[in-house]
Structure prediction request, 294 residues.
Amino acid sequence: MSKSFSIISALVATFIWGTAFIAQDIGMDNVGPLTFNASRFLIAFISVLPFALFFESKKIIKEIKFNKKNFIKLLAILSGSLFLGTYIQTMALKYTIIANAAFFTGFYVIFVPILLYFIHSKKVHWSIWPSIGIYFVGAYLLSNISKSEIMLGDGLIILSSFFWALHIIFVGKFMETFDIPIFFAVMQALVVGILSIFFAYLFEDINFSKILLISSSIIYVGVFSGGIAFTLQMFAQRNIEEAPASIIYSLEAVFASVAAWIILNQILLIHDIIGCALILLAILFSQLAPIIKK
Prediction:
């Protein structure tokens, strides 16, 4: 599989995640974050399972048989970080605005190279650091954070970005060892769905009539964000290292702002457009600098 396909997979996944901010924000008006995530990930499991069985049924047993402990370990780490990341992020949307959420979610861009060094003693290419700087300037302009208060939700979003960073790192680790990306995405969705149901039962009032009210949001986030996007992430990180991948994923701030402009009539001003351009520049620099040197 070529690096070009991996980059396309990363971009499509990022587009879906960016537009999903709108659906998540709408969903939080009616149900709790655990109920919302339980619904979305169970739908993700159902929607992707047929593809896993069709394309990877012959490889599943073979891939897991000789490395069962590592598969279970990575499934636990990735499912746990995804559960915490999505739960905290979804809960935070009750206390902050979409622009802030998109901006602060991008903190995984700085967490990824730092965690890579502490977890795997892995240094990143020098181009990552200026790319991170360019990204934050662009995200600052795009979100116009200077005109909004630092809310409780913003702190929660930063916390969620820590778990997103862990997820990005260990997806890369998984793809170094296993070749069953669709099946893993299915199992991950199932585990996160079960965890969300369990804690929703303990801490939230599950109201099926309210779930039906936001069924369109849940289906979009479930099928596309929870199912397709997280599957594409597996393919993306087959040929893209973790730190450059995180910078590509940061483009979700641009997609979130454009979606808010189209759907919620939130007009993009000149500083928003400059912010979008800078984020795109950061992504291009992180991908092209290592190639140009070679």
